TrEMBL record:
This is Armadillo-like helical. GO terms for molecular function: molecular adaptor activity. GO terms for biological process: ERAD pathway. PANTHER family: PROTEASOME ADAPTER AND SCAFFOLD PROTEIN ECM29, TRANSLATIONAL ACTIVATOR GCN1-RELATED. Keywords: Repeat. It comes from the Eukaryota. It holds the Pfam family HEAT_ECM29. Residues 129-250 form the ECM29 ARM-like repeats domain. Residues 747-905 form the Proteasome adapter and scaffold protein ECM29 HEAT-repeat domain. Gene3D superfamilies: Leucine-rich Repeat Variant. It comes from Corchorus olitorius. GO terms for cellular component: cytoplasm; nucleus. Transmembrane segments: none annotated.
Length: 1311
């Protein structure tokens, strides 16, 4: 922006209107400030800008009187600002402004030498002393007073003004002023401010005096120099540095004379050498800066070789300093020693000059512009041979020692000094000759780890480019391009010694002992400690890479400046530079990023256009570097790719799309975390790009199709199948989005997509679930529940959502490729989720395509049926059964018939086959019921018979199926009874014991449900059963006996009617089974015998069976065996030929009870003794209470039969026999019953026993009992009544007692 400042005169006019007294002149500074100090400061700065602006506008012609008048008033305003009450900032600003105006003095004064000397007097009192002697004297006093100012900047500016003012004084006046100043240094005023001001003024005034002709006397100069030397030797570092500065100022106008003492004379630097060495090794940075610059000033006019050597030694002693400002000051001093610096003594002494480095500001600004206003008018500085020696010494020190030193601080110092020489003395012929060597050094230093060294080397490259000729400029550009592209080689290596720093401290961690790892020696020690000496080569490789990276960054700093000037010279290199510059802008190192960004801005005017034009080269570079062994290159390549692919069209990225995906996946699996993060970012970017390119609503259909052809197969093969979780998840997410947005465009890839998603259901499942399932049984987790949990998780996954999307786009043409792939996956797929998934997908697919699946039903049914049969997982078996059921719905009739028959045949197989049968039939009934209903004659018998499987799970499945398939059990069995009976008979006659068992149980169920409706088929069933009873025993054979009993109960009339002999045959068969010695089988035989006797009700059965029963009872008597086994002794494992000789007496007594029920009274009386013995045996203490319960029931049944016979019998002989038997029962059985009540503490036994006793007593009381004797049980009953807790038993006992009392009364009356 162009700032135009107002006219200086106008501004002053405005200010003076506010306060006209500003123009009043005062001899001293007692005036009062008319504005606040801060207002003054702002005012002065602005007026100075106006002054410089107007001066620049009128530099072609002599100044007008109006302008000079304005300058006069400005100076008066500045003098007014120096009042006592002003702030230190105000005084400093005003004094520096006076010096600034003084620096333009020749420009203003020269055209006015014949016009008006008054204006010159006002500006800086540079006038003829005769005209203003008194006024000048007052101004000198005024300036001397300001030398004691508290502000250092003000003191230095005033001292500079005093030196300028002294140039108009005669020699005597100047000498007097110098004497006064020197005297003040040795006086009593030891205030620092006073000494500092006096020293500064001494230097400026003496320097001016030396420059005049005639000069001051030799004696005065010697005394002044001796005074300054004494200050250097005796005072602190600050004052010593000011004294050295004064000596330097004096030396600017001529060589310093030898310092003469009483006995000898010597060079000043030699006298001060020891003190200066001490001061330069101190820690006062500002003092060291002043001292080293003053040494340079002292040598500007010096011709003494010894003097120069001392100066060089002092400056070179600073080569290991780590303070940047000191190094820059030393570089400036060397420039003065070299010669050809673009400043003169007048510039240094009579302007606001501070130093060359501050004036040029070469690190922040433009060097050419900074030093353009200064020029050197020195044609020759002393003898040329002395200067040649100095230059040679400096060059050898830099190139042979410092710049290739093993110490980084020495290399840094050498870089600063070489840059200073190149910058300040660049136009010197010697420097011009050395430019190629300087370029090589700076190129070498671009790889330094030290940032300052690197930045200065790059700055030096820029300066060399400006100074060089066309050939050198071309070589420099080529070298920089080589460095940036990595093709350049370092021409000279730095020799490593023990303390050579290879890495910056902390870069590669710490040693095994916790120490630092940076020097060559420390790295070698670590390699030896680890037992891997070759490790040092890897460290060196890392160091070389770091140097290469640093070279690129340093080259970038220099290149950014050269690029603007190189212009067309860079055009041939752009093709190789652009890709690398783009990549380096994403480098992990922020410094590299910034440096490359500077080059990019310098080279590229239109970044978007440049990238578009070089896009293929950029892609080639980035897709090569993503596989680099350097993690920085991999990370930068990914980040750069993520940015440049955004918004691209297919024709721009199509041929690179697959490689970009590959780069993203590789980076996501990188060993370096930051590279993985960059890979994630690239993955997100390329995902967004891919989805847009494959979306037909955003991209042309042909491009979308090509994009899909590139990306989808890659993602399915490389992405989803990857072993890296992040890659798999990202791939699945992309595939799902592609399937959602691509629509029908995904059909060509449907088979691959579906199979990949199905396989991913298992491969991407959390492996922890597999582990849990493996150990589920050990921790009590049901496998089926865990499987259902896994499937529910899978169905909520992105893979399943993608499969749902695929179902929506399937058409009949897609089936040609899809069905064979699905069939192959059914055969080879592994994992629960995959197998269930493929089955479910087939189910959904058939539902979607409907009748279009018919060409494939035969193949699918042949494939799926054995899979259902062999599948072990319940969930997978159900899923495949569901898929087969939906196939059945569209299968041809012949295929359907075969499939249903094969399914029904599974019920005769192992457990897995039976479960498969149940699942298949259930699926058929729920999915293809219209097909299945035509085959009920096949499946209903199977379902009914399979309900009686030994396995509870299997039987439960068929039980559920039976309930779903039938509306009423009786009706269904009647409808399909013939088929059921046929299947049962086949089962009984089969060689399988399990089939025999379930067939026998089915007969029991048929008998229970149908009753006598089963009569028409009893012959076939009985024939089959009776054939199986004889022979060896096998596990579960007792079910055949239960079936015979159940059939006898339901069809006894039909059996008897068809063949009267058959009941006896059955009885004989069952009776023989009762003699078997296997407990379970014998118990079943007794139970069956009881049922047969009761069912047929043949009185002859008593005579046929009772003798056998009695013999068994007698054999079981404790009197025979010595003891009766208890329950705990009879619980043996029953297997095959296991024997148990004990008789189930309770079952035996039940059979006796059934015999009593069907027997005639005559037969009972004939076997009364055996009956009594059987009762007494069974009620003996050795038997369990359950036996006694059966005995009580048998006795009650006997009493009931006898009571009935008494009522019906009129024959005296039969009546008498019954009466006698009843009396025997009363006498023999009653006491045993009472004994059971008193010995057994079970209320159930008490109730049954009391009922039995009541029956006996009442029967006895009902006959003529004149001959009955008292059995003595009344007293016991009374006692039992008292202690009985059960109310029902109490009531029965009380009735027994009443019956006994009644019997006693009858006996008393008859007697």
């Amino acid at each position: 922006m162009d700032h135009r400042y107002p006219n200086l005169g106008d501004m002053l006019e405005y200010i003076l209107k506010q306060h006209p007294t500003l123009l009043d002149s005062y001899e001293m500074r007692e005036q009062k400030l008319l504005f606040p100090s801060k207002t003054y400061v702002a005012m002065i700065k602005f007026l100075l800008k106006c002054f410089e602006s107007e001066l620049a506008q009128n530099n072609s012609l002599g100044r007008s009187s109006e302008f000079l008048s304005s300058v006069e008033r400005l100076c008066l305003l500045l003098e007014h600002a120096m009042a006592f009450e002003g702030s230190a900032e105000l005084h400093s600003t005003a004094s520096k402004a006076l010096v600034t105006i003084g620096s333009y003095l020749p420009e203003i004064a020269h055209p006015l030498l014949t016009f008006s000397p008054y204006y010159i007097i006002i500006i800086l009192l540079i006038i003829d002393s005769k005209m203003v002697a008194s006024h000048f004297a007052s101004r000198i006093s005024w300036l001397k007073q300001l030398l004691n100012h508290v502000d250092m900047d003000t003191r230095e500016s005033v001292a500079r003004l005093l030196g300028v003012a002294s140039s108009c004084l005669p020699v005597d006046a100047s000498s007097g002023l110098i004497c006064e100043l020197v005297a003040s240094l040795g006086g009593t005023n030891k205030r620092f401010e006073a000494q500092h001001g006096a020293l500064c003024a001494t230097g400026y005034v003496t320097a001016d005096a030396v420059s005049k002709s005639p000069s001051i006397s030799e004696e005065l100069l010697q005394s002044t120099l001796k005074c300054l030397v004494d200050v250097v030797n005796s005072e602190n570092a600050t004052l010593a540095s000011i004294a050295m500065q004064a000596l330097g100022h004096i030396g600017l106008y001529g060589p310093l004379p030898l310092l003469v003492s009483e006995s000898s004379s010597g060079i000043i630097l030699e006298v001060l050498n020891e003190k200066l060495s001490k001061l330069l090794s101190g820690d006062d940075t500002k003092a060291i800066q002043k001292i080293v610059i003053s040494i340079g000033h002292m040598c500007v006019k010096e011709t003494s070789t010894s003097h120069m050597k001392i100066a060089l030694d002092l400056i070179f002693s600073l080569c290991r300093s780590k303070v940047e400002d000191i190094l820059f000051a030393a570089g400036e001093a060397l420039s003065f020693l070299w010669g050809g610096v673009p400043v003169t003594a007048n510039v240094i002494l009579k302007t606001n000059y501070t130093s060359l480095s501050m004036t040029s500001n070469f690190l922040m600004g433009d060097l050419k512009l900074s030093l353009s206003k200064y020029s050197s008018d020195e044609k020759s500085e002393g003898r040329e041979d002395c200067r040649i020696m100095v230059r040679d010494t400096i060059a050898r020190k830099l190139f042979d020692s410092l710049l290739y030193s093993t110490r980084k601080e020495e290399r840094c110092a050498g870089t600063v000094w070489l840059l200073s020489l190149t910058m300040y003395c660049g136009h010197h012929p010697t420097i011009q000759q050395m430019l190629p060597e300087i370029q090589e050094v700076f190129s070498h230093l671009l790889g330094e780890q030290h940032e300052l060294t690197q930045e200065l080397a790059s700055q030096g490259m820029s300066i060399v480019y400006e100074l060089g000729d066309a050939s050198m400029k071309k070589n420099l550009v080529d070298a920089l391009v080589s460095t940036l592209t990595g093709s350049g080689k370092r021409k000279r290596a730095i020799k490593l010694v023990e303390d050579s720093e290879v890495f910056q401290e902390g870069t590669i961690g710490e040693s095994l002992g916790g120490g630092k790892l940076s020097t060559y020696k420390e790295l070698c020690n670590l390699a030896n400690e680890m037992g891997q000496p070759d490790l040092i080569y890897k460290f060196m490789d890392l160091a070389n890479y770091q140097a290469s990276l640093n070279s690129k960054r340093g080259a970038a700093f220099g290149f950014s400046k050269i690029a603007k000037q190189a212009g067309d010279a860079l055009q041939p290199h752009l093709r190789s530079l652009i890709p690398r510059l783009l990549r380096y802008q994403y480098d992990p190192d922020k410094n590299v990023q910034d440096a490359m960004a500077h080059i990019w801005k310098s080279l590229v005017a239109d970044p978007k256009r440049t990238i578009d034009e070089n896009l293929d080269y950029i892609f080639d570079d980035l897709l090569t570097q993503y596989g680099s062994r350097l993690w920085r290159s991999r990370e930068a390549s990914c980040l750069a790719l993520a940015d440049i692919i955004q918004g691209r069209k297919f024709d721009q990225v199509g041929k690179h799309l697959k490689k970009i995906w590959l780069a993203a996946f590789r980076a996501m699996d990188d060993i370096k975390e930051t590279v993985r993060n960059a890979g994630d970012k690239l993955c997100r970017a390329v995902t967004s790009l891919t989805i847009r390119l494959c979306d037909v609503s955003l991209t042309e259909a042909s491009d979308a199709r090509q994009s899909m052809d590139i990306v989808l197969p890659f993602l399915l093969a490389e992405g989803i199948m990857s072993k890296v979780d992040n890659i798999r998840k990202a791939s699945i997410g992309v595939v799902m989005k592609l399937a959602k947005g691509a629509g029908t465009a995904v059909r060509p890839h449907l088979s691959d997509l579906v199979c990949c998603m199905l396989e991913s259901l298992s491969s991407l499942e959390d492996q922890g679930l597999n582990y849990v399932e493996l150990h589920a049984a050990n921790v009590g987790i049901q496998t089926e529940k865990l499987e259902n949990l896994r499937l529910s998780i899978a169905k909520g996954s992105p893979m399943w959502e993608t499969l749902d999307l695929c179902i929506n786009v399937v058409d009949s043409k897609s089936l040609e490729m899809l069905v064979p792939r699905l069939a192959n996956l059914v055969r080879s797929g592994v994992g629960l989720n995959t197998r269930v998934g493929v089955a479910t997908f087939i189910n959904l697919l058939v539902q979607k395509v409907g009748v279009d699946i018919r060409p494939y039903t035969s193949m699918l049914s042949r494939l799926l049926f054995p899979v259902v049969k062999e599948e072990k997982s319940t969930a997978a078996k159900r899923a495949f059964a569901g898929a087969l059921a939906i196939i059945l719905k569209y299968a041809a009739p012949s295929q359907a018939q075969k499939l249903i028959e094969d399914t029904a045949a599974l019920h005769t197989g192992d457990r897995n086959s039976q479960i498969s049968c149940a699942y298949l039939l259930k699926s058929y009934s729920s999915t293809a019921l219209d097909v299945l209903s035509g085959y009920n004659t096949v499946i209903i018998p199977v379902i009914f018979l399979s309900r009686f499987e030994d396995d509870k799970h299997v039987s439960g499945l068929f039980e559920e199926l039976w309930e779903e398939s039938t509306s009423g059990e009786r009706i269904t069995l009647q409808l399909y009874l013939g088929e059921v009976i046929s299947l049962i008979c086949e089962g009984i006659t089969s060689s399988s014991w399990a089939s025999k068992r379930k067939s026998a149980q089915a007969i029991c169920k048929l008998s229970e449900v149908l009753g006598d409706s089963l009569s028409s088929y009893h012959h076939a069933l009985l024939e089959s059963l009776m054939k199986e009873i004889p022979g060896r025993l096998w596990e579960g054979k007792e079910t055949l006996l239960h079936a015979i009993g159940a059939l006898s109960k339901s069809c006894h009339e039909a059996i008897t009617k068809e063949d009267p002999v058959l009941p006896g045959t059955i009885l004989s068969l069952v009776s023989s089974a009762c003699t078997k010695k296997v407990k379970k089988y014998r118990e079943a035989a007794f139970f069956c015998l009881e049922q047969v006797i009761k069912s047929f009700g043949n009185p002859e059965f008593f005579n046929l069976v009772f003798p056998m029963l009695f013999d068994m009872c007698e054999a079981a008597s404790p009197n025979k065996t010595g003891r009766v086994p208890f329950a705990s002794e009879t619980t043996k494992a029953e297997s095959g030929d296991a024997e148990d000789v004990s008789v189930p007496v309770d079952k035996l007594m039940n059979c006796i009870t059934s015999c009593i029920q069907v027997a005639s009274v005559t037969d009972i009386l004939e076997h009364k003794k055996k009956l009594m013995d059987a009762f007494l045996i069974s009620m003996s203490p050795g038997f369990q209470w359950i036996v006694k319960m059966s005995t009580f029931s048998s006795v009650k049944e006997l009493c009931s039969r006898l009571r009935t016979s008494l009522d019906e019998s009129q024959e005296t002989s039969l009546y008498a026999g019954i009466t006698t038997f009843v009396q025997e029962i009363f006498r023999s059985v009653s006491p045993k019953v009472v004994e059971c009540i008193s010995t057994i503490k079970i209320s159930q036994v008490h109730i049954a026993a009391a009922e039995c006793l009541l029956e006996i007593t009442e029967l006895t009381a009902s006959i003529s009992a004149a001959n009955c004797t008292d059995v003595g049980i009344k007293g016991e009953l009374l006692h039992l009544l008292e202690i009985e807790k059960n109310e029902q038993a109490k009531s029965l006992l009380r009735r027994c007692i009443d019956a006994l009392e009644k019997l006693e009364q009858v006996n008393a009356q008859t007697s």
